[in-house]
Amino acid sequence: MDAKPRFTERKYLLILLFMALLFMLWGLALTLGDVLNRHFQNVLHVSKSRSSLVQLSMFGAYAVMGIPAGIFMKKFGYKNGVLLGLFLYAAGAFLFIPAADVESFNFFRFALFILACGLATLETVAHPFVAWLGDQRTSDQRINFSQAFNGLGGVIGPLVGSYFILKAGQEHSNDLVSVKHLYIVIGSVIAIIGVAFAFVKVPVLNDPHQTSAVPDVATALTHTDKKLFQHKHFVFAAIAQLFNVAAQGGTWAYFINYGHEIMHMSDEKAGYFFSLSMIMMVVGRSVGTVVMRYIAPNKLLAAFALCNIMMCLIVAQGFGWVSFIALLFINFFFSIMFPTIFSLGLKDMGRKTQQAASFIVMGVVGGGIFPPLMGLVANQNVATAYYVPIICYAVIFLFGYTYNKLNKNTL
After folding, report:
1. CB-CB contact of 258 with 271 (8 Å)
2. Closest to 248 in 3D by CA, of 62, 73, 68
3. Residues 6+ apart with CB under 8 A from 218
4. CA angle at residue 266 from 385 to 370, to 5 degrees?
5. pLDDT (tens digit, 9 = 90+) per residue, 246-305?
6. Alpha helices, DSSP H, located in 335-388
7. Domains, the chain, ranges and CATH?
8. If you count DSSP H runs as helices and E runs as strands, how many of each does the chain have, helices first?
């Protein structure tokens, strides 16, 4: 094997760029959900804890679709998996039309659930797909590269949402018409992309996880013959991912509330700062992709988790701009966590890679569990609510710190 494995092969470049586009599209959808969280508080007059059911509807879909999407992908292939995900994404977006017409919070939650079933399908397919597009030793770099586009979508989401939904003084800032129009556009764009992808030729792939770099053949056979849940590094990765997305869901859900209540900003201005925090995440992923060439991914993950424990402590004090800047930096240190946990969990899983990916995707349900818990605290004080994610980052630190012991095949 090459001393310095390539990032990817030339023949995979087009498909890798298309997958990066998909990462961007679901990043946009997820952060738009956080804008909707605040808008529903204003227009439908729901409390912070009840509005967090938006996150539960979206991230709960991952628990429902994780395994079915993996089974579908295994039976019908990656391309059809992507097409299914795009179909559900577009269908959920178009369901916003009747939801807005009847002004029903529960109908919106149903539409978001269908949309998120599409996102869950795309994530289940995309991560192992990107991991397959080259040498396994560079799979961390490819997934972090793709996740940088996810961060770009995360930047675009709150920018679009703040301008078209939260902007004060515009004609439909206090109703749901702008929401309906925005999601009609989104649904149409996703449908067009789905048609375009149907004509993309997916090359024959060699699974890098089947030929992973391990000390010897005997070790490789022993490792890949294990049952799924005997792979300790995979099991801890699934747990770490649940807590990771729990921290993400809670942090994002109340970012605009923090800007409004602690920093005394308008919702629109707080939304623009939310977009800035997503730029911090893009920068973090770009930096992380480079740094991983010199520092082991699991060690960098542990270091970033410790940094976010410190950031949460500062945010929870409500120290004005000092705390608000710390809130922005949470996304910088959060940046590499999702893709790195995912990639580390899939290493050396052999034939069980697709099945393992399904379970790790299911961990995303954590993003629906923590926001309601944080909402109960945020109803009293939104700054104090940021103590809660510290639990999550402690679990992530332990995963990164103990990873080499968990995965005996780590070189």
Report:
1. no
2. 62
3. none
4. 25
5. 998 888 888 989 999 999 998 889 988 988 988 898 888 888 878 888 899 999 999 999
6. 337-346, 353-362, 366-378
7. 10-406 (1.20.1250.20)
8. 17, 0
